[in-house]
Specification:
Layout lengths: L6 H13 L13 H16 L16 H7 L21 H17 L17 H18 L3
Helix pairs in contact: 1-5, 2-4, 2-5
């Protein structure tokens, strides 16, 4: 499983983000490219603890189910994310694009951090789990927009 903490995974995601444009249409779903950028930025903010998230509850938050969802099961089209990942409204494309790149850099700089916030769906996660989940989530949405 690729991760934002691995150079190849991070470099791949950054190249795909740079290939994205504001007018790109989704291959599935209702998000616009600017809305998607805000959404994936919110997910990174959750990982950083910048967006307060409720405690993980339900089947997805229980090991080994959370492990399977993060590392094994393909991300389904149309899956509903937590409300916390939809708090930011798009501003300008350039500002939002730059903000996402800054958030990814901040996340990668925290690799040595020992404690990480809980995810509202997947519960208690390690930094390694957050890095894999973030790669998978960003890759899913970039694929949604054909990059």
């Amino acid at each position: 499983m690729k991760s934002l903490w691995e150079n190849d995974g991070r470099d791949e995601i950054l190249a795909r983000i740079h290939a994205l444009s504001a007018d790109r249409r989704p291959q599935w779903g209702k998000l616009t490219a600017p809305q998607m950028l805000a959404h994936i930025s919110d997910q990174i903010r959750m990982a950083l603890g910048d967006v307060p998230a409720r405690r993980g509850a339900g089947w997805f938050s229980v090991p080994p189910i959370n492990y399977l969802m993060i590392y094994v099961v393909p991300w389904p089209h149309g899956a509903k994310g937590p409300l916390e990942a939809f708090t930011t409204k798009p501003a300008t494309w350039d500002a939002d694009h730059e903000q996402l790149l800054t958030l990814i850099e901040r996340f990668c700089d925290k690799k040595q951090q020992q404690t990480w916030p809980e995810h509202p769906l997947f519960g208690k996660l390690s930094g390694k789990d957050w890095a894999a989940l973030s790669y998978k989530h960003l890759s899913h949405h970039l694929r949604q927009f054909g990059v």
